[in-house]
Amino acid sequence: MRIISLVPSVTFSLLDLGLPVGQLVGRTKFCISPKNLLSSCPVVGGTKSLKLEVIARLTPDLILANKEENTKEEIEALAKDFNVWTSEVSSLEDNSKFLLELGHRIGRSTNAQSFAKEIESIFDRPWEQKQMATYLIWQNPLMAAGGDTFISDVLNSLNIPNALGTKKRYPTLENNDLDEIPNILLSSEPYPFSENHRIQMQNRYQKSNLVLCDGQAFSWHGTFPRHCREYYRRFTQQLL
């Protein structure tokens, strides 16, 4: 089977589940992990700027896309000529279903079942209750994860209430929207918040606890959460 993945977390998951590297015949420029296995895999553009002619030349049997990561127009264009599976993962429950379906499609059902159970076990443990948090994904303008996102479900499953739980998708915020938030989380992606950003913002929000966080641990669906058990433990210890 010749597979093209248009989603970084899905690319990672394919190889994590044991897909032979030779079956992955295309990836986006953002699919860079695991680096040692992807160096020779052709790049087919960015997640939202695909090179359709390159994809066509690679004659894939299956293209893996995601509703949030890829553009509707490009996926519809590919679907006219190729078998495209467009996933939509907004919760950990969705993620378990996605893993099982992915495992089935690539002939790695047993591995997928094992990963799904391990991920479920991470969030089944009694995590200590934390105060509300806002998870920032962008700086100018300030944007954060709303309540119907995978990020929000991971937060809630770690007993960290999302202060924007009633908001949809990724709302834009004003500076004063963060004034009464106990925990302000600064993600490493898509905007690369750094320690300098944290220090600058701490001066503005002196009553809040500002914490840098690994964006992949909260936004990458698929197998990636399975590798984050210890990270989640250390991360939650930093919160109020």
Automatic annotation (TrEMBL):
InterPro entries per record: ABC_Transporter_SBP, ABC_transptr_periplasmic_BD, Vit_B12_bind_prot
Extent of the signal sequence: none
One Pfam short name: Peripla_BP_2
Domain of life: Bacteria
Keywords annotated in UniProt: Signal
Alphabetical list of Gene3D superfamilies matching this protein: Nitrogenase molybdenum iron protein domain
Stretches assigned to the Fe/B12 periplasmic-binding domain: 2-240
PANTHER family for this protein: MOLYBDATE-BINDING PROTEIN MOLA, VITAMIN B12-BINDING PROTEIN
Name the record gives this protein: ABC transporter substrate-binding protein
Species: Planobacterium oryzisoli
